[in-house]
Amino acid sequence: MDKQQTPEEKLKAVIYDIYILLFNETVSDRRQVYCGQIWEKIVKWCDKYNYLKISANNMGVEIYNVINRLVKDNNETVKNKSEFFSILKKSMENAENEYFRTFGQGSIHIPRDKKRMLKELNEFIRTEKDQRGRKLTKDEEDQYISKWFIKQEYIDLINAKNARNLSSFENEKNDDFAIEDTHLLVPLEDLINKSNIEDDQKTILFLLDKKQDRTRDCDRALFTLYCIENKLKGLYPILDQEIIDSVSKYGNEPKHYEIYQKYHPDIDNKNAGVMASTNLKKFLKDIETCLKNKNQ
């Protein structure tokens, strides 16, 4: 009689099966689906069976990077499930150490008074947006932030907040201090050549055209939302006109995870939020690199 699997063994079997599918998949869109699925299962496995000193949810990006390295750094699949989990555990230990080096030992603590100040600032900005019937400009938001915080202190607090709860995009509306942290994204407004905007448009289109259809459309939509939030109207001609029109006419600004789910409907809110954030920041970094090289 075969020995009955424990709940952990069953979960590990699912993780390994998804890994095999991910390793063998050549279509970019399907790979992203499998990445989201295995990310969710690894987080569940780590938290449920205490393989990390902190919650795996705090290490969303680090775990995503572990998954990529597991697939890319091996020319062939690992021999069996036992070897896979031996490599995975070591990789997770390294990722946890990397997390601690970046954010400090233990869980990140945000003082109670700072939480209260962030909440007050968030409520004030929401009220201002409602009264004006529009999103605040970056300068307007900076002006209000300066009344509560020194800029670097604010950035550090938002970084800490993101590190503590990276993947809770579906709970944004209920988050007491979920202020939009567009300041932390690549400052493209400082790189865009206003006098030759068509040239920058071509550079961005070149980067988009290198992607497969669904990935390209998803990245364009995410980048469209970024450009709307940062008033980069010079790039509107190459962006997702449906999103631009919807925001312009009706004020309907989609969430990042909603955009990602449009092109990857198999991903749940939490994973879609992480994948959307990771993909957008990677695309912004690619744009930044190209524009800097071009302007040198």
Briefly say what this structure is.
By secondary structure, this protein is mainly alpha-helical.
**Secondary-structure element pattern, one letter each:** HHHHHHHHHHHH
By secondary-structure content and strand pairing, the structural class works out as mainly alpha
Q: What value does the average pLDDT take? A: 76
Terminal CA distance reads 70 Å
Rg over C-alpha atoms, rounded to the nearest angstrom? 21 Å
Tell me the number of strands. 0
Number of domains: 3
Cα shape: globular
Q: Count of helical segments?
A: 12
Low-confidence parts lasting 5 or more residues at pLDDT below 50? 163-186
Write the layout of secondary structure elements.
Layout: H1 7-24, H2 28-48, H3 60-72, H4 81-103, H5 112-132, H6 138-148, H7 151-164, H8 197-209, H9 213-229, H10 241-250, H11 256-263, H12 269-295
Helix pairs in contact: 1-2, 2-3, 3-4, 5-6, 8-12, 9-11, 11-12
Properties at a glance:
296 residues; mainly alpha; globular
Provide an overview of this structure.
The protein has twelve helices and no strands. With 296 residues, it is mainly α. Residues 163-186 have low confidence and may be disordered. The chain has helices at 7-24, 28-48, 60-72, 81-103, 112-132, 138-148, 151-164, 197-209, 213-229, 241-250, 256-263, 269-295. The chain has three domains: 7-103, no CATH class; 112-181, no CATH class; 188-295, no CATH class. The radius of gyration is 21 Å and the shape is globular. It is 66% helix and 0% strand.
